[in-house]
Amino acid sequence: MRVKTVIIVISVLSVILLEGAALAIDQTLLLKLLELKRESYLNRRGELSIDITPVYSQDKSIVPWTITKNYNYNLNTNIRLGLSDRLELSVLVPYTSMQKEVFTNAWDTYRGSGFGDPRVSFQYEMLSEKVNRPATYLTGGLRLPMGKSYFDGVPVNELAPGSGYYATTWGLSFLKSIDPTALFWGFDYQLTFPRADYNPADILGYNLGLAWSLNQSVNLSLGLSGAVVGEDRQIVNGVEQTLNPAYNISGLSVSSNVMLSSGLFVNPSIFFGLTDEESDFIFSLGMSLKR
């Protein structure tokens, strides 16, 4: 499976490079690639954007005596408002439908659906781009445990759409454009707050990519993202114990951004997981309306 995935990725990369397409990773930045000549990729004061993104993902894992298959269908609605020419506020509301199939002696199927945990975040332009420096953006956000979780009595044979934990994420993003190309990179740290006797792992993420527009209405992109996931810990008989070791995840995305009309964008994206812990495949088809 992994060998086939790598072959597919290499083939896609070759085609994209031959066509002179661009590389990128961050979805929020990607929606702004057609506006590279602007000083900032953020919404200006009073500007409003609504992003609606259906997402499908699948994953298969095999360990001794057990096969697990996961299928997720998400509909993410993200509302972004420019509070000033340098500050943007966003609210993301996810809806998810999940299915898990587990085989030991026979196949068992688990399902769940509902609204997940909403996220409130901001992006602030700390430094504007100049000839000798990239634009620098500070990002911060809070995940609210409002989706139904196992803390709310979801049966063990059902899948919960919510995590049940507060989490905050802080990071820096960078943008350097050399018309008609743009280079992106950044990192962030997610801190998940403990609840009851369980302390979920913190996550250190990174992303990088390069992008350029094919014309005034279309661009293609590709990027690499990854993260180091820490240890889950739980208090047992008054002693904190590690439940699993830290591990790495990474993946490669191939995307396109198409401007259908003024203020209306479509963003198809394909993601290939490069590690066993990452999802095998993710496809999304986002639509962004800006007013």
Explain this structure to me?
The chain has 2 helices and 16 strands. The strands form 2 sheets. A 12-stranded antiparallel β-barrel has the order 1-2-3-5-6-7-8-10-11-14-15-16. Strands 9-12-13 form a 3-stranded antiparallel sheet, with no helix packed on it. With 291 residues, the protein is mainly β. The chain has one domain (2-290): Porin, CATH 2.40.160. The protein has helices spanning 2-18, 27-30; strands spanning 48-63, 66-82, 87-103, 107-115, 119-127, 135-143, 167-178, 181-192, 198-199, 203-213, 218-229, 233-236, 239-242, 247-261, 264-273, 281-290.
Helix-strand layout with pairing:
Blueprint: H1 2-18, H2 27-30, E1 48-63, E2 66-82, E3 87-103, E4 107-115, E5 119-127, E6 135-143, E7 167-178, E8 181-192, E9 198-199, E10 203-213, E11 218-229, E12 233-236, E13 239-242, E14 247-261, E15 264-273, E16 281-290
Antiparallel strand pairs: 1-2, 1-16, 2-3, 3-4, 3-5, 5-6, 6-7, 7-8, 8-10, 9-12, 10-11, 11-14, 12-13, 14-15, 15-16
Strand order across the biggest sheet?
1-2-3-5-6-7-8-10-11-14-15-16
CATH homolog superfamily: monomeric porin ompg
Low-confidence stretches: 12-40
- Radius of gyration (Å): 20 Å
Give the helix level as a range of percent. Answer: under 10%
Q: Major beta sheet, specifics?
A: 12 strands, antiparallel, barrel
Task: Assign an overall shape.
Answer: globular
User: What is the strand content?
Assistant: over 45%
Q: Which key phrases capture this entry?
A:
291 residues; mainly beta; Porin; twelve-stranded antiparallel barrel; three-stranded antiparallel β-sheet; 2 helices; 16 strands; 58% strand; globular
